[in-house]
Amino acid sequence: MTSMIDIDPPGFQSRPIAGEEGARRTVLYGGYTVFSVFQPVFSVAHRRAIGYHASLRAHDEQGQQAPSQEVFTQAARRGDLLELGRLAESLHLGNFNAFDSHDEWLFLSLHPAALMDTSYGDALLAGLKALGLQPQRVVLEVSEQAGGENSRFAEIIDGLRKAGFVIALDGFGAKHSNIDRVWQVRPDIVTLDRSLLAQASRHAHIERVLPGLVSMLHESGQLVLVGGLSTERDALIALESNADFVQGAYFARPDVEPVPPAKAAQLMDDLSARLRERVAARERSQSARLAPYVSAIEAAAKQLAEGATMS
Questions:
Q1: Residue 274: what are its φ and ψ, rounded to 5°?
Q2: Cα separation, 33 vs 293, whole angstroms
Q3: From CA 41, how far away is CA 224, in angstroms rounded?
């Protein structure tokens, strides 16, 4: 059984609870039981989960699943929002440490208010040290819109990077996105906004542009993650854009347990085979479309050659 969570801010009551596969941590808050779930992030090149994105889930007093947004709304009304964010991270760290057996990253989404708190980094480092986890194992996801032009924001990000954390810029490609933002934050990973994928899935010309955007980010020194992939078409678009990492319901939904390595490898192999079929079909279609023009050019060239021979 895991130990009780150390952080115990006003309004919270925490306790450990045994899951079906062993012990996992949960928290009681305002009539809700709050717990961690993890959605794998897959490396295309390595054919396995290289990390897990943590998020909260909640059950009400009757044991029914409740939208986690309800918990955050209640916390906002009570003035507990920052404390809930900190407690969520404590939950995620403890539960991730309990099932982790490899060298995967833990992806944590940062609330802007928590990020601008000067004590945030020190508190997170202390939590990691207590669990024996290195900061290099934690990816801190920063919203592309967070911080604005605040120079203090850039300093905080730089401090977290120097402490060893991996920095991800989340939501690139949404409204008002600018490559200057990438150069300012200098993230290790850029997560493309889901709206880009939605547009690429609907419009062929945007789909054709996507590899160029990924290439530009690669040239700038960033790895690229495409999330929100819910269909095979979404996943194929992401792979063909040369994204480094992929995530979404098509691959695996958030769960309390890690994805089996063999299952992950098979899933990536099957998708790669579908991509090869897709590329081959496109090439055949393009060849068929160009065939009349090629034949006309060849016929014209033959006529020219015959005319030259006769003269």
A1: -65, -35
A2: 66
A3: 12
Whether residue 168 contacts residue 189, with contact meaning beta carbons closer than 8 Å, is answered with yes
Q: What span, in angstroms and rounded, lies between the C-alpha atoms of 281 and 287?
A: 10
Which residue carries 């305002």 as its tokens?
Answer: 30
Give the span between the Cα atoms of 113 and 11, in whole angstroms.
Answer: 19
pTM summary value: 0.81
Of 11, 38, 12, 10, nearest in space to 27 by CA: 12
Q: Are 142 and 169 within 8 A, CB to CB?
A: yes
Instruction: Report DSSP state, residue 136.
Output: G
Element of type H or E holding 237? helix 232-240
Nearest C-alpha neighbor of 31 from the set 68, 67, 59: 59
pLDDT digits (tens, 9 = 90+) for 40-97: 999 999 999 999 999 989 888 888 888 888 888 888 888 877 778 778 888 899 899 8
Q: What is the DSSP letter of 137?
A: G
pLDDT in tens, 111-155: 776 677 777 788 888 889 988 889 999 999 988 766 555 677 788
Domains of the chain by start residue, with CATH: 12-259 (3.20.20.450)
* DSSP per-residue codes, 6-47: S---TTEEEEEEEETTEEEEEEEETTEEEEEEEEEEEETTTT
